[in-house]
Amino acid sequence: MRIGVTYENGEIFQHFGHTEQFKLYDVENGEIKQTQVVDTNGQGHGALSSFLTNAGVEVLICGGIGGGAQTALAAAGIQLFGSVSGNADEAVKNYIAGNLNYNPEVHCTHHEHEHSCGEHHCGEDKHGCNGNAGNC
Fold this sequence. Notes:
CATH class: Alpha Beta
Low-confidence stretches: 110-136
CATH architecture: 2-Layer Sandwich
Mean pLDDT: 82
Distance between the termini: 27 Å
CATH topology: Nucleotidyltransferase, domain 5
């Protein structure tokens, strides 16, 4: 199984459509066998679903994610675990152990306000991020 995580400096990047890197985890028999960090090469939003499909990703762990991206991932057969924050490696370990804390109702409404996710440090949850208030 291959797990993809939106990634920045060891942490889960909080805006799927603006992520510049994914960390990919190859998992066999409940153990992480290999990891790699891959650049999205400037691709964003809709193109990221194809990017993940081409990379063989079956599970995505991320922070905020919009409805269009969720639909594209579902169509590609990629299982989504959104509204997750913190250390990427720990999140994957928690997923493997069946203990990942995520929000199945996650959505990103960042287009409704003026700031971008990278400007307000979503991981600090100062603006209701991580799906808690429907923001990115």
